[in-house]
Amino acid sequence: MADASSAENRGPARRLLGPLAVLVALPVLMSAWIPTLPRLDFDLDPRIPTAGVRVTLGAAGFGWLALWGTAAAWAGVAASVAAGGRLRWRSTLLVLAGVAAAAWHLPSSFDDAYHGLGWVWAASAGLAAAHLGRHAAAWRWLLALPVGLLVPLLCQALSYRLVTHPATVAAYEAATAAGTWSGPGSDDPHGAAARLYERRLRINDATGPFGFANVLGTVAAALALAALATLPRPRGAHAWAGVAAAAAGVALVGLTRSAGAAAALAAGACLLAAAWATAGRLPPRVRRPALAVLAVGAVAGVVAVVIARGVAGVPTPEVGVDAERTLLFRSQYWSGAAQLWAGGAAWLGLGAGGFGEAYARVKSELAPESVTSTHNVLIDYAVMLGLGGLAWAALLPGWLGRAAWSQPPRGGVEEEKPGPIERPEAYAVAALAAVLFASEAWIRLPELAGADLLWRAAAAAGFVGLVLAARRAGRRGAALATLAAATAALVHGQLDMGFHQPPAAPLLWLLVGLAAGAAGRPPAAGARRVAPEARVPLVPLVPIAVAAVAAVGVVAVAQARLVAHASALAEAAALVRAQRPDLALPRLERAGVAVGRDRVTTRWRGRLLLEAAAAAAGAGDPAAAAALYDRIATTLGPADPTLGGEARLREADARLAAGAGAPAAAALRGRAVAFLETAAAASPTRPERRLRLGEARLAAGDRAGAAADFAEALRLDALLYLDPDTQMRAAERADLEERLRRLTAASR
């Protein structure tokens, strides 16, 4: 059987495959290389001097990449079919089912728009790779360009460990010593938030552009295995380049210190070794199902281990932090998701934005934190997107099994010797590197020093060399390596948030789809001998066009909402910096309306109004302060009951200061209690909410209720022994116990 390069295409489609593969891969690389902060202007307090300096993409910038990538992906599917490839009907329908589910949730909230847009792009990129992977003109680009990313990611991780992290810690220590720290935990330097921030700050695990060490570990493990595609080729510079790239990926996994990524890397390597060793030694009827069982079984095995850890139970307080906690926490996330799924999320799902709020209601009392992801790609999609998510949850392991089942035997494809690197190819790769690295440097230029530019230049050169070497891989090597890469991605995908995070999801989906495509049978040499200009297969192209319009339309609608949101946030941030909160408030409200619901804009509207009310009270105008507190409770309380309760309590004090009677103040405190009861019911395992509810009851004169809430807060806090940094300080706990003792004694 000839390699696809001999007769895979005819007519204009043949010339489009390579460029379309580049157009599919380039935005994926940019998403994985340029950092993204979804709420660009309000991830930090806009009044911090450096907050107005933009050095990352925002949600709108990411959305433009998603729009480009989705359109290119569906064009790639169409070009593959027009060039003689077969349309993967089942895969296409499963992708569209997930797209429909994501579209349903888009109007709900900012998180649904941002994640939904990224997930639709990711699934489209995977589908394009599954189709283009059958054509040599395309899969060489789809394989080589992501592999080339290993060099810059490793350079960035080394720079972070050796330069950036030590400087960040030193700056934090200097600011806290001088009393000028204004970041997280600054309002209570000894509180739980400050302790958690400092603990995380001192961890020097490499996180890369994704902000999560586990996500970077997933990407590094998958790319390290994909880089081995050159090994079946005759020994030489190309093969050694693949080995060097794989070593860089292994080193990058080590810098993340992610045990799960290391295990996923080992699982993929073992599968690669098994596939390599059995090629030509076992008959295909034995080898193919065995590889499929090993690949899918590795993914299922991780799920089984986590379930077994949950069944084993939790450690005692005496063991506490010394016990294994990572798998235990995952099992708790999954248990909560299962309750939500069985409770009504099975059909339409909860959405990316709704899951976090719903999970807080069913979270285990022993779990120290609320999460917005189950840390499992299959469960995430099922609980957030319902039936559409189940379609994606079936598609990804299905592609993996198909990639293993379809592995070409040794001698099953004609392997060509590596051709020489020609100038046009080298120039094209250099141009792509220039676009990728210049875009990132332009965005991050305000914070880059000369040394940063130097190592980026070196990384760009390494990227070019590695891409050129990886393009020398043969089909059999690509099929083996991408199978191992997809296995590693999905194995760790059962434990981390890689497929959940929009910047990383397109790359991981692309690798899994490419594994299914590269292992498939290339178009036969004798197929459809027609004139180059004749007989484009219109029948499958019509549904592809309809599907493309649907997918691109979903992304375009989400992007329009994100652009409106980002524009309003930028205006609001500028006005906050200009000390004009009165003008910033309407912009923040407009930003929230643009995406349906946004907890950040709600929180900032409340913060600005609270500051204005405090200023009015300090200026001797309690009536104006009371009016502002009432505005907070009325307009923002339904969305944020904690904020509404706090506003009503302060309004009661302001009304008393303005001359109102005690009955009016008591009524306001009663309404505050109602708000805080709602907040406590929404997160029944959070001790700080029970504590605040108890204080509100005490202010309202309900001593018995306050005592019950204080006792519950102490009980919940004691259950957080798996992460002591989330518990009350000893002095805080002793003070609360003393208050409870006095209340109990007074009620006797």
UniProtKB/TrEMBL annotation:
<feature type="transmembrane region" description="Helical">
    <location>
        <begin position="139"/>
        <end position="159"/>
    </location>
</feature>
<feature type="domain" description="O-antigen ligase-related">
    <location>
        <begin position="245"/>
        <end position="391"/>
    </location>
</feature>
<dbReference type="InterPro" id="IPR007016">
    <property type="entry name" value="O-antigen_ligase-rel_domated"/>
</dbReference>
<feature type="transmembrane region" description="Helical">
    <location>
        <begin position="238"/>
        <end position="255"/>
    </location>
</feature>
<feature type="transmembrane region" description="Helical">
    <location>
        <begin position="210"/>
        <end position="231"/>
    </location>
</feature>
<protein>
    <recommendedName>
        <fullName>O-antigen ligase-related domain-containing protein</fullName>
    </recommendedName>
</protein>
<feature type="transmembrane region" description="Helical">
    <location>
        <begin position="453"/>
        <end position="470"/>
    </location>
</feature>
<feature type="transmembrane region" description="Helical">
    <location>
        <begin position="291"/>
        <end position="312"/>
    </location>
</feature>
<dbReference type="Pfam" id="PF04932">
    <property type="entry name" value="Wzy_C"/>
</dbReference>
<feature type="transmembrane region" description="Helical">
    <location>
        <begin position="477"/>
        <end position="495"/>
    </location>
</feature>
<keyword id="KW-1133">Transmembrane helix</keyword>
<keyword id="KW-0812">Transmembrane</keyword>
<feature type="transmembrane region" description="Helical">
    <location>
        <begin position="16"/>
        <end position="35"/>
    </location>
</feature>
<dbReference type="InterPro" id="IPR051533">
    <property type="entry name" value="WaaL-like"/>
</dbReference>
<keyword id="KW-0472">Membrane</keyword>
<feature type="transmembrane region" description="Helical">
    <location>
        <begin position="89"/>
        <end position="107"/>
    </location>
</feature>
<feature type="transmembrane region" description="Helical">
    <location>
        <begin position="113"/>
        <end position="132"/>
    </location>
</feature>
<dbReference type="GO" id="GO:0016020">
    <property type="term" value="C:membrane"/>
</dbReference>
<feature type="transmembrane region" description="Helical">
    <location>
        <begin position="536"/>
        <end position="558"/>
    </location>
</feature>
<feature type="transmembrane region" description="Helical">
    <location>
        <begin position="261"/>
        <end position="279"/>
    </location>
</feature>
<feature type="transmembrane region" description="Helical">
    <location>
        <begin position="332"/>
        <end position="356"/>
    </location>
</feature>
<feature type="transmembrane region" description="Helical">
    <location>
        <begin position="507"/>
        <end position="524"/>
    </location>
</feature>
<feature type="transmembrane region" description="Helical">
    <location>
        <begin position="55"/>
        <end position="77"/>
    </location>
</feature>
<feature type="transmembrane region" description="Helical">
    <location>
        <begin position="377"/>
        <end position="400"/>
    </location>
</feature>
